[in-house]
Every structure is written in C-alpha cells, then in structure tokens.
Design goal:
Number of domains of chain B: 2
Distance between the termini of chain A: 102 Å
CATH topology of the largest domain in chain B: Rossmann fold
Oligomer: heterodimer
Radius of gyration of chain A: 31 Å
Largest sheet of chain B: 6 strands, mixed
Helix content of chain B: 25-40%
Strand content of chain A: 5-15%
Chain lengths: 579, 295
Amino acid sequence: MTLKTSLCNGGLLRRSFVKGAPLWSLWLLGWLLILPIYLITRPDVYPFELTQHVNGCLTLGCTIAAFFYGLAVAWYQFAWLYRTRSAYHYASLPLRRETQFLTRYLSGLLFHIGPALVVTLLSMAAGGAQGENVVLPILNWLGATTLLFLFYYSLAVLCALLTGHVAAMPVLYLIANFLSLVLQEVLSLILTLILFGLSAGQNLWPTWFSPLVYCLNRGVFSQERLTNAAGETTGYLFTGWPIALIFGTVGLLLALIAFLLLRQRRMESAGDVIAVGWLKPVFRYGVTLCCGLTLGWIIVSLVLESGRTSFLPLLVCVLIASVIGFFAAEMLLAKSLRVFQKKNLLRLGGALVVITALLLCCKYDVFGFTRYVPQADQVQAVSLDSGPVVDDSTIIERTIALHQEIVDNRHALENTPGNTLSYRITYYLQNGTTVERYYHLPFGDYSDPDPSSLGYRMEVLENDPTVLLEAYFTEQAQPQLEELSVEYRIEDGSYLQYPLTLAQKETLVEAMRTDVSLGLLGKTGMLAVEELGSHLSVSWQYLSPDSVPGRYTSLSITAESVNTLKALRDMGLPEDALQ
Amino acid sequence: MLEVKHLTKTFDGFRALDDLSLTVPRGAVYGLVGPNGAGKSTLIRCLMGIYRIDAGEITLDEQPIYECVGNKQRMVYIPDEIFFEGGDSIRDLKQLYAAVYPGFDRERFDRLAAVFTLDQRQPVRRFSKGMQKQAAFWLAISCRPEVLILDEPVDGLDPVMRRQIMGMILDDVAEHGTTVLVSSHNLRELEDICDHVGIMHGGKMLLERSLSALQDNMVKVQLVTELPLPEALQVVHQSMVGRVQTLIVRGNADTVQPLLAQCHPLLCDILPLSLEEVFIYELGGVNYDVKDILM
C-alpha cells in the first residue's frame, strides 16, 4: 500500500489559526498601538525620534513580550496533549505525529509572523506619512522579534512535550528560564557558609542558562547612545543580530528535539507532570536537590545565627529539606499521596547519601576551590574589591602573594574573633575566564589598625598609586573637562563652585594625576586622609574613547595633595578654600 | 481483516493487555465483551494507533495501523467519552473530518441532517450526552469508514435513536462490507447485531467465536430427576428450586440430550443461552465471581 504522507494538514492549520484568533489578535493589537498607531499619531515629534521609538521597541518586543507570547502560543497549540480525551481524539485521527507537530508548530509561528508582517507594513506606511524612512528599524524589529519569538516559542513547545499537565507546562517553562539563576544564587549562599573564599551571588556557571536574564543583562536588543545631527546624545541603536541569529538557531534545535519527543510520546502520559520516562528520575532527584538547597538555606537562615563553621546543623537542615523535596516530587510523579513505599525509601536514602557526600566534599575542599590561587603567568589583570581592572605585573604578583597568604592562614582566619572587613579579589585570566574570591580579613581596631594584619595590607594594596591611577585616570575613560567643577564650603555652610577656564581645568587634572601617582591623593578606606575643613572637592564626568559620556566621580582634596593645592592656589582659589 | 497477534501493553509495569490475539473478519460485526478492567478500551486504543504497543502486532489487511495514515483513513473511532474542543460546532467538526478523512461524504452528511436533527452551528459541548453521541455518529458515518470502532456506543442514546443508528450501521455492513468492532456491556443489544464475539478477561482474550458457535457451546437445562447426574455431563453451574434443577452444561443439545437420558428425567427442557448468560458462565470459570456481582 502506498502511503501519502503530508507534512502539514491544511484543515488542521486553518482550524488552529481561526480558533486561536483571540490570542494573535491581542498580539496584533498591542503592536499596532505601539508602532504604526503611535507613529501616525505623533506629528509633532522629530523624524529622528520615530526611528528611535521603533528601535526602542526592540527591547520590549524581543525580550519580555516574546517571552510571554511564546509561552502562551505554545500552551494553546499543544494543550491537546494534556487531557486524556483530547490526546486520544487527535491521536486517533489519520494524521501522522509528524504532521500534527509540524502543522501546530507552523500555526504557532504564524501567530507571530502574520501579525508582525501586518505591523511592519503599516509601520512603514506610517513612518513614510511622517516623512521618516523607518524601513530599516522596522525590518530590524521584524527580524529580531521573529528570531526571539522562535526561540521562546520553541523552548515552550519543548516544555509542552516534556510534560503532560496543563499547569506543569508554564512552570517548567519558567524553571527552564530561571532555574539556573535561582539555583546559582541559593547554591552560592549555601556554599558561602562552608566554602572559604566563595562569595554570595558569585557566578558559578554562564548566564545563558537563563535565556531571558541573559537577554536582558546583555542588552541583546537594547540601546546604545547615539548622536543625532544636532549633536544630541539620545537614542537607540540595534546591535543584536549575531545573538538574535544564535537564539533563532537554538530555537530550531529545540523544536527538533520537541518533534522527536512527540514521535516517541505515549499518549497515556496525558495528565502526568513529567511525560517523558527518562526525565522522571531527573525530576525526582532534581527537585530533591533544589528543594534541599533552597528550603535548607531558608531553614538555616531562620535558625542559625552564623553558619560559617556550623556545618553539622547546615547539613541536617539541607537533608530535612531534601526529604521534603523528594516526597513532594514523588507525589507529583505518582499523582498520589501514598509514596512511602520501601523502594522510595531506598531511593531517598541514596539521594541523601549523595547530597551528604557533596556537602562534605565542599566542606573539606575536595575539589580544591579554597586552595586555588592562580599563577602570575595565568593572570591578565586583577581587580580588588570591584575596583579598577589593573594589568600591572607588580600589582598582580602582590595580589597573588597576599591571596596565597590568606589561603595558607585559612583556619586561623575562619576562627579569628574581632573586627573584619570584607574584600573581593577578581582575577581576569589569560584564557578569558575570571576567578573571584571573597574574604573577611582582620585588621585590628578601627582607631589603631594593625599594619601587619591581612586586612590592613589589603587596604595598602588597594590604595597603591598604580591602582588609584587606574581608578581615576584610566586610558579608557578621560575626564570630560567641560563638566569638571571645583566646589568648597563657605562660612555660611553652603557650597560654592569656583569657575575655571578649560586650560585651568587641564592643569588641575594634571596636578591631581601627579598627586595620585605619588600616593598623595585618592586614598580610601583605612588609609583615607582627612579632608580639608572647606570640604574642597573636584568632580567630573568621564568620556569613553568614542566620546560617550560615562560615570561621574569626585575627589576630596586633602592637605597631602600638595600639587593639586598649588595648582588651585595658582588659579586664584581663596586661601580659605584651601584649608 | 483486522488482526491482532500476541499484543501486550503495560502501564507502569501493570500488564493491561497480555499476549492477546484477535481476528475480526472483513464485514463482521464483532462484539467485544468483558468485565470492567478487562482491557477492552485499552485494546481499542491500541487498534486505533493511540497507544504505542509494547509487543505484538496489529494489522488491517496485513498492514500496520500505528502511524499508518492510509489505514487510519479507513477507520473511524467513537470513544466512550467523546471529545469536543471548546466552541466546536458540528459544522467545525465537519470541516476537520473532511480535512483528515479523504472519504468524507458531504452529500451523505447533508442527507443525515434529516435523521440527526441537531443544530449544526451550536457548540457541541452545549448538547446533552445523547446529542453529543448523535453528533459523533453523524460525523463517523459520513466518513464512510471501512472499519468502525465503537466503545460503549449507545450509552446515552434514546431507544429510537439507538435503533435508527444501529440500523444505519448494519445497512453499511450489508451494502459496503463495513467491519464493525463494538465494545459494550449491553449484551442483549450486542446479541442482536453481532455475528462474532470475543470475551476478554484480565487483559487476555478468553474466547473468540462466532455468536452461533458460542451459543452452541453451552446450554441451559431444566431437569427433574431422582437419579444422580451422569459424570460425563460438564456442569458449569447448578441450582435447584424445589425439585427442579437448573443446569448450565457445556455442549449443544445433540450432545447433552443422550447424557441426560441416562438419568431418566421426569422433566427435561434444553434451552439456548443468551449472550449475557454465556458471558456470565464463561467468566465464572476464570474466577470472576458472578455471585459477587449479584450481591
């Protein structure tokens, strides 16, 4: 018998598209309001702003909106898998699973592409009516939104195929997007309690495990400052094509996996939290571990005052939470409360042994995390306490030496009573990775710091002129002289700005640079020098190498800053202001 | 011919179908009977390619059914619990069925509108259970299937509509050689329409015969005698009211009569068994305790 196999069923496609009209109509309406209707109803804005508005919509359209719309469309298209009756009905029809999948997947894509094309054409027309050519930004919007929708939609479809429960699907989708982030946060919080040198919130794995967060953090479809013809620096510039294309490609791969899953799917899994057999143990032990860590950390936070050396109570809390997580997962899988059978107790025992072993490995530094100090030739640059990135070899070597001393004195530091200050060391390695450590170091008393203490010596390193020069006068960010101002307090308590010419400002910057390089200006922390009675300070804004204005900074002038004081005196600053 | 060979289907380790075999000849009306949990619905879902089977073979004219569009286009299934999506009207469903069944006969559909006087524009979910069943039959019959599979088909239908629908199906069987497999607990009704019967129990096919052969295999005897029953008589069930014994005996009237003659009965009536009685007494032999049901 010759079988005619069709990849897409027109009747099913038409039916899906027509019945889903409320969903895609909302999408269409939203974008109509945001783009063409906005463009046509703003005759008073400059044409430049229209382009910027379209570009600005990329952030919304490509990240947040596509994230939610992808979920909604996948939910609608594959909801038939979640009810026994509907799953059996569609499976009994003379349609191959390939046809069912491709028809519904394509229909879901049309839910976006159809409205997006309408919005594109109308927006171009609206832009043209306003005398502005918005073709390129609109096409950018169309392409980028479509690629991002492709990714989120495919991810949601994959989630839809992994589960058999209508409520589990969106939960799984959210987990796919945020689990890595939450787990990293909780894991680092837990490990901070037992791993010497680990900081809470430290990145343990790449951020792209959480696609939405990655998109937002990287500003994948976000803005850059742009200079228009009038010299103003406002606006957006779309620069996200490479990432958009990667997301689109990954989306197609996810769709392929989803397709293979549907081919293998057992229709009787409708109603199950996890529909794929091999994923059930992953779910069971994944929930056990995640619950153990998250709930365990919550219990630790509520019960224990200081967890750093309290390993046993921490372990007990994590194990109790793991037991809860295990049975919760088992109840979800079995759809029953009767899960306390012998086989489950054995499984739980195994899971608890593994969790205990992992925590013990961390506690006793089996993986060498605590002991690790990079070699000088591995390090490209170093940053102290999130300060400037310094590539000076002397500073790198001094940092490594101090770090090694901290590691060697680990046990003494962990049990040191008294005042400590926290310090962060970040190494930028030659291989492109970063290594970060975070320590609480003793320094003596606030009034009388101990120069031999690790904390004090770290302060000295942080206030090294090489580091300070990098902090205030880096090559990558030059002071914008027009914005530089000198301010001091007068008798009545108010502050006065002293006017300087551009040449004077240039001289002042040079004088400050000299003082910083001599260690006479800019010191902070325990080494900070008391500022003048007049609270004399110099403030300025930085310019990036491509002249984009950046952050502001301010330096308090001290009595030590002889070169700066001399320069200001020469510029005619009143003597009261210099004392 | 619809054929199942050594079919096994398990759910999380539970064997719902166990090495089951079945043959439905072309043009037959095959009644599938069995107690609750026997595996009838599971078997039907396997036949329709809904479930992926663990072992065995299911074929229609020696071609597999699972994921075989050509064969599935020849088959239509009406489940015990019919699914209608959201606001689907009969008109919407007609379009869907026409799109997936090439044999969908629009003229027949329109002609049947006179029989099934249902509002084609109204959402089917607003219909009563019986009306939903009517809608399902309307669409199924309009597909002109070669194989019609029905799971508890007449549940919810009124007697008139039940007779009318069954009449239409039997007309199709007579005129077009349609094969019908019907699962039902209404054995009296099955007896009227089926020519083959399969009795399932515990995921296995207990026995499978033509209805006449099945009924010829067991008889009911009403007997009054002073002598003991001959040992050669295979008595399946025995009860007594006063002096009258009621026996269910394996064999047909021709084989049982000479045996009964040996005990010189004062009264001896040999009666055929209804399908319901065959079902009850056959299952009585595999620990399906009829007394429990009656109590």
